[in-house]
Structures are given as structure tokens and as C-alpha cells.
Amino acid sequence: MIVILKEHAREEDIRALCRSLEEEGLSIHNSEGAHTHILGLIGDTSRVDVDALLASAAVEDVKRVSEPYKKANRKFHPEDTVVSVAGRRIGGGHFSVIAGPCSVESEAQITGVARDVQRSGAAFLRGGAFKPRTSPYSFQGLRAEGLALLREARRATGMPIVTEIMNTEHIPLFEDVDIIQVGARNMQNFELLKELGRLKTPILLKRGLSSTIEEWLMSAEYIMSEGNENVILCERGIRTFEPSMRNTLDISAVPMLKAKTHLPVVVDPSHAAGISWMVEPLAMAAVAAGADGLMIEVHNDPAHAKSDGAQSLTPAAFDALMEKVRPAAAFFGKTLE
User: Fold this and answer.
1) Could you read off the pLDDT of 215-248 as tens digits, one per residue?
2) Spatial separation of the C-alpha atoms in residues 21 and 256, rounded to whole Å
């Protein structure tokens, strides 16, 4: 349930209203925008007397919310959320590009790629230290050593780092990671999501391989319900019957998410198709669809990459893509961070 307050409601009336609602056992999500002030009521609202609420001097209107996700719901929070990390912003008209290799392989590799993508305009450096792989015989990442190399690249370039966590036991290792990524395979690892919700670190939540938008938003709700509202959604393609590409990018999810949630939405065109030449057209489609950013894999030597070389751009190809992304983002009213 949401309570829409009058534009010039008195503070004492609002405080009295909040006290009475809390006495009924409800939690209140307070959202105050430029022109709207909304109280989102969380809990058993079936017993709330709507007529009594409407009689309050502070209340303009009352609406029931049917969706099971509350904190992630745009009805509770009409204004776009802007996630700020080390001076870079994602959401609310701010467009950021996250770029780097699928896996951290060496100090020279990750630092060299970091410098390349930074020169081209990327705001964040991505790199996998812990790698969830379909085969147990595939490269699993450098693990803690990979995290240390990401920190070295951050020291060398100043770029905030984005990397994937696998389970709750690894949380102490991620204390100084700038954005923690939850991969598609862990989107419904609810115990992990709850633990990440108790952190202040922004969380980049990738969509599950076969998950609906509502399931995805409910996973975001798990994080937000524990107190961490710095959640970024990442569309990375879903599994369909089409065998010609790795996944199918659900570009329609971007405007749908924009209607349903206030959270920033970024698109990963690299994992979507798994084919490097498809990255550029999918990235441009994401910009046009209203995405708040892109996450792109870039490797200095894709042919010899230890993971996902087929979908990785070279630094030169990434630079060419950024030359197109920059004016496109501006055309659609986004400011490139």
C-alpha cells in the first residue's frame, strides 16, 4: 500500500501519521521526490482502514500495490535511484560503461586492459577473480590472487572495480570491492542475497538464465529488504530455444523494468550473444532502449583468453564502440560518466 501525501502537508501531521501506522505494526518506506512525497507501507495492510487514512490532514490519496516486491517498486519510489561509486553515477540520466576481461589472468593483463578501457571512456573496471564455470575442468579464476590484482589495477588507474562473488564465505575478501556482482547462477541464492543486503556496497544483480522479470525483482527485494538499497540490475540475456547464439538478449526487459522499478538497469551484450561481432549492435540497441549503462568484456588477446574469448572485444574494437556509444547516449538524454 502507498500513501500519497499532500504537497504542503505539515511535518507534525506527517509524524503523527507515521506513528499511528507504526503502532499498527507496519514498516514505512519514505520516498520524497521533487514533487511527490510517498509513504510505502510494508507489512499486513489488509487491516488498514483506508477511509481513516484519507481523513488525515496529511494524506492526498491511498493506493494498494498488488506486486509482491515493494522496495524495488517504482510505485513506492517514483524517482530514479542513482547509485554513486567513487564519484561515478549510474541511473537517473547518468550512463556508465563497465569494461574489462572475463577473467583476471595476470597483473600485466588486467592493468593493461584497465588503462586501455579507461582511455576509451569506461568508468568502471570489471574482471572475474572467482569464475563460475559450467565445466569443473575449465579455468576457475585466480580467486584471492585475482582480487589482489584487481586492486593493483585500481591503484594504477583510479578505476573502481566490479567483480563477482560466489558465496557468503567470500564476503570478507570483498570488503573493499567497489561493486559486488551477483552472477546469473546466484540470482536466487537467497542466503547470499540477504548477507549482501547487510552491506553498504552496491550490488550488481544479473538476471538468471531463465528468470522472469518479477523473479528478478524479487531477488533485488531480498537485498533491499535487509537495508542495502544500492542495487543495479543487469540484463545479460536469457536461455531460449534459439541455438545460433549463447543467449537471447531481452531488450524489451529494459523499458519494462523502467516502468516497474526505480533501480538502474545496465545491459551486458557480451554474455547475451557470446559472439564478439554482435556486441556493438546489441550495445547500441540497449542505449536506445533506455539502459543506464553497459557491461562489456574486453581482452588484450581474445584468441588466448582463459575464458570467454569468443565474446570479448579487443581494446581497439572497444574504443571504436565507445565512439558510437558516446553520441548515442547524449542523443537519448544520458550523460556519460
Assistant:
1) 999 999 999 999 999 999 999 999 999 999 999 9
2) 32
Residues 6+ apart with CB under 8 A from 83: 89, 90, 91, 202, 230, 231, 232, 264
Residue 138: how many other CB atoms lie within 10 Å: 12
Q: Is 195 helix (H, G, I), strand (E, B) or coil?
A: helix
The per-residue pLDDT for range 125-163, each reduced to its tens digit, is: 999 999 888 888 788 889 999 999 999 999 999 999 999
d(CA 90, CA 264) in angstroms, rounded, equals 6
22 phi and psi angles, rounded to 5 deg? -65, -35
Of residues 264 and 64, more confidently modeled: 264
* Distance of alpha carbon 197 from the chain centroid: 13
- Find the length of the chain: 337
Q: Are 298 and 100 in contact (CB under 8 A)?
A: yes
Spatial distance between the Cα atoms of 167 and 211, rounded to a whole number of angstroms: 20
Per-residue cell: 112: 593493461
Q: Which amino acid is at 31?
A: S
pLDDT bracket for residue 35 (50, 70, 90):
confident
Range list of H helices, the chain: 11-23, 50-54, 107-120, 144-157, 190-197, 213-225, 253-260, 269-273, 276-289, 315-331
Q: Three-state SS for 275?
A: coil
What is the distance of C-alpha 54 from the center of its chain? 36
Residue 277 has pLDDT above 80, yes or no: yes
Rounded (5°) CA angle 268-313-117: 85
Alpha-carbon dihedral angle through residues 317, 320, 322, 323, given to the nearest 10 degrees: 180
Tell me how far the alpha carbon of residue 237 is from its chain's centroid: 14
Q: Which residues, other chains included, contact 268 with Cβ-Cβ below 8 Å and sequence gap of 6+?
A: 206, 234, 235, 236, 237, 294, 295, 296
